[in-house]
């Protein structure tokens, strides 16, 4: 299979991914790989700030992860992260964003196997 | 010739993305990639670059705070995931504003804009004089004789080595005509001939016996346009 023929998983934002990588699957492999390597520590940091009720640092880390999600085609989650970040500036307590955070986390965790599978497919090209 | 650039972003994947885009463009040589403002500032105190790809929200100083500390003003391409900084971007004269995540095509547009802007800066004025309407007649002023131009409501005052002329115009119109080569807007009410500056102290510069205010946001650009001994 040629590199240009690679079709990303339909659960990811194919249009965006194609505009970013333009068939450069070495670049895509590097990014998907690094995403999966760094994600656990980033999520753990966000969770720690949430549990420590540190709203400002929680917001900052959500802000930081926001564009990263799009790099692997999770543009919908980027939008959710943006809403979560925005809400953090409007609420008094971190508990006020509990539902949003829970929904964001759950959806992200569901998508991790999709990203892992995508990395395997790219590596097998 | 390739443009030199640095990347300042606390997010490693975002830095990596930019490094790869820069390499792919074939136009940009990345001199450094920094996770926060402090290390970038340290680098820029000893090195000049053409472009800074700059995130705004980072640990420590923000991207704008970094710009405040620079002694010269390269082209700035903001790379941020927020759109809230549009006004600041305007104030700091940034060349382009890339909202993360951005495509390679959008990146190329920003780089081309920076490249074209740098070419514009080295374009010399086509003429060495200008005719102004003052006191009911057209008077020729040689660029080399103009010290500065001050905005006074609906009028502008041309201060030359010999005398002062009042003309019905706006500083914006004068800026569009003169702000290439040696002339630069340093404050909302002043355009100066950079070759006529006697000294600069804090946010004031002296031309002849006149004190000219320099706006905070334009100070670093002024410093970048004059020849400072090292």
In short:
The complex is a heterodimer of chains A (125) and B (230). By secondary structure, chain A is an all-alpha fold.
Report the total helices of chain A.
5
Oligomer: heterodimer
| Biggest interchain interface, per-side counts | A-B, 22 and 17 residues
Radius of gyration of chain A: 16 Å
> What composes the largest sheet of chain A?
none
Averaged pLDDT of chain A: 92
Strand percentage of chain A, roughly?
under 5%
Structural class based on helices, strands and sheet pairing of chain B: alpha/beta
Strand residue percentage of chain B: 25-35%
Give the number of helices of chain B: 7
Radius of gyration of chain B: 20 Å
Q: Strand order within the widest sheet of chain B?
A: 2-1-3-4-5
Principal-axes geometry of chain B comes out as elongated
Distance between the termini of chain B: 25 Å
Largest sheet of chain B: 5 strands, parallel
Tell how many strands the DSSP assignment of chain B holds. 15
Describe this structure in words.
Chain A has helices at residues 14-21, 25-51, 55-71, 75-88, 98-123. The N and C termini of chain A lie close together (7 Å). In chain A, helix 2 (25-51) runs antiparallel to helix 5 and helix 3 (55-71) runs antiparallel to helix 4. With 125 residues, chain A is mainly alpha-helical. Chain B has helices at residues 12-25, 37-44, 63-69, 86-91, 104-121, 171-178, 216-225; strands at residues 3-8, 28-34, 51-54, 75-80, 96-99, 129-134, 137-142, 146-152, 155-160, 164-168, 183-187, 190-193, 197-201, 204-207, 210-213. In chain B, the strands form 4 sheets. A 5-stranded parallel sheet of chain B has the order 2-1-3-4-5, with helices on both faces. Chain B is α/β, with parallel strands linked by helices. The interface between A and B is medium-sized, with 22 and 17 residues.
């Amino acid at each position: 299979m040629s590199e240009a023929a690679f079709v990303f998983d339909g659960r990811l934002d194919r249009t965006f991914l194609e505009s970013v990588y333009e068939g450069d699957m070495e670049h895509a492999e590097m990014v998907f790989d690094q995403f999966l390597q760094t994600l656990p520590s980033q999520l753990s940091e966000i969770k720690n700030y949430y549990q420590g009720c540190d709203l400002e640092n929680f917001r900052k880390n959500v802000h930081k992860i926001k564009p990263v999600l799009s790099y692997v085609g999770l543009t919908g989650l980027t939008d959710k992260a943006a809403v979560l970040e925005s809400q953090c500036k409007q609420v008094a307590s971190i508990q006020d964003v509990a539902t949003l955070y829970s929904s964001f986390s759950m959806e992200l965790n569901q998508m991790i196997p999709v990203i892992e599978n995508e990395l395997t497919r790219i590596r097998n090209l | 010739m390739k443009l030199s650039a640095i990347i300042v972003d606390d997010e490693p994947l975002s830095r990596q993305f930019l490094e790869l885009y820069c390499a792919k463009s074939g136009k940009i040589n990345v001199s450094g990639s920094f996770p926060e403002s402090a290390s970038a500032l340290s680098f820029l105190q000893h090195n000049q670059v053409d472009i800074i790809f700059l995130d705004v929200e980072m640990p420590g100083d923000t991207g704008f705070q970094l710009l405040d500390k620079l002694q010269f003003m390269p082209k700035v391409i903001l790379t941020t995931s927020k759109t809230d900084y549009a006004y600041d971007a305007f104030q700091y004269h940034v060349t382009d504003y890339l909202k993360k995540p951005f495509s390679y095509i959008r990146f190329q547009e920003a780089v081309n804009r920076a490249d074209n802007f740098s070419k514009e800066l080295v374009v010399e004025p086509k003429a060495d004089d200008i005719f102004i309407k003052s006191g009911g007649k057209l008077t020729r002023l040689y660029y080399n004789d103009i010290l500065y131009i001050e905005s006074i409501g609906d009028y502008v005052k041309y201060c030359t080595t010999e005398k002062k002329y009042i003309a019905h115009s706006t500083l914006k119109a004068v800026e569009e005509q003169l702000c290439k080569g040696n002339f630069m807007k340093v404050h909302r009410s002043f355009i100066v001939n950079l070759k006529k500056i006697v000294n600069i102290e804090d946010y004031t510069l002296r031309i002849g016996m006149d004190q000219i205010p320099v706006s905070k946001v334009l100070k670093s650009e002024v410093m970048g346009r004059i020849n400072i001994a090292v």
